[in-house]
Automatic annotation (TrEMBL):
<keyword id="KW-0479">Metal-binding</keyword>
<dbReference type="Pfam" id="PF01475">
    <property type="entry name" value="FUR"/>
</dbReference>
<keyword id="KW-0805">Transcription regulation</keyword>
<keyword id="KW-0408">Iron</keyword>
<dbReference type="InterPro" id="IPR002481">
    <property type="entry name" value="FUR"/>
</dbReference>
<keyword id="KW-0238">DNA-binding</keyword>
<feature type="binding site">
    <location>
        <position position="92"/>
    </location>
    <ligand>
        <name>Zn(2+)</name>
    </ligand>
</feature>
<dbReference type="GO" id="GO:0005737">
    <property type="term" value="C:cytoplasm"/>
</dbReference>
<dbReference type="GO" id="GO:0000976">
    <property type="term" value="F:transcription cis-regulatory region binding"/>
</dbReference>
<dbReference type="GO" id="GO:0008270">
    <property type="term" value="F:zinc ion binding"/>
</dbReference>
<protein>
    <submittedName>
        <fullName>Ferric uptake regulation protein FurA</fullName>
    </submittedName>
</protein>
<feature type="binding site">
    <location>
        <position position="135"/>
    </location>
    <ligand>
        <name>Zn(2+)</name>
    </ligand>
</feature>
<dbReference type="GO" id="GO:0045892">
    <property type="term" value="P:negative regulation of DNA-templated transcription"/>
</dbReference>
<keyword id="KW-0804">Transcription</keyword>
<feature type="binding site">
    <location>
        <position position="132"/>
    </location>
    <ligand>
        <name>Zn(2+)</name>
    </ligand>
</feature>
<dbReference type="InterPro" id="IPR036388">
    <property type="entry name" value="WH-like_DNA-bd_sf"/>
</dbReference>
<keyword id="KW-0862">Zinc</keyword>
């Protein structure tokens, strides 16, 4: 019996292999995952899968338009299944948490550049950077717990962009 994922793969001109189906299933529950995290999830179901195989599958699925590859600065490439809309991302500059942000305009390309150099703009990718609620709370707590030598409380050190942690 053909599943929805099998149909999607075949509709995109790809064979519905166990590896491709497993990667798509993993992305259903683990949006914004990198290849290493997906490899760990897929290898639980398909123990003979290699990291290279996962990279190849991700390339095939991206080229076929079944998944989206995003590349926030300071992070490995991340993949997601949300492809049929024009959305953007918000990334925590402290822990690397990432979330989806709906386009404020609602249609591609969402932004109009001041100059295109003759290009026909089809889409715009926007990444918002800031502190997630958890890191905001931690920074506030750290600040409250850290008095200076003269008794004045010191603001937390400037946040730096760090590599995204994977579980």
């Amino acid at each position: 019996m053909e599943t929805e994922l099998d149909s999607a793969l075949r509709g995109a001109g790809l064979r519905a292999t166990a590896g491709r189906v497993a990667v798509l299933e993993a992305l259903d529950s683990m949006a914004h995952s990198d290849a290493e995290r997906l490899y760990r999830a897929v290898s639980e179901v398909l123990p003979t899968t290699s990291i290279q195989s996962v990279h190849n599958i991700l390339a095939d699925l991206t080229t076929a338009g079944l998944i989206r590859r995003i590349e926030p600065a300071g992070s490995a490439a991340l993949y997601e299944r949300r492809i049929d809309d024009n959305h953007h991302h918000v990334v925590c500059t402290s822990c690397g948490a990432i979330g989806d942000v709906d386009c404020v305009v609602g249609e591609a390309p969402c932004l109009t550049p001041s100059w295109t150099g003759g290009f026909t703009v089809q889409t715009a990718e926007v990444t918002f950077w800031g502190l997630c609620p958890s890191c905001q709370n931690a920074a506030q707590q750290q600040s409250a717990d850290r008095p200076s030598s003269d008794g004045v409380f010191v603001a937390p050190a400037r946040m730096r962009i760090r590599r995204r942690r994977t579980p």
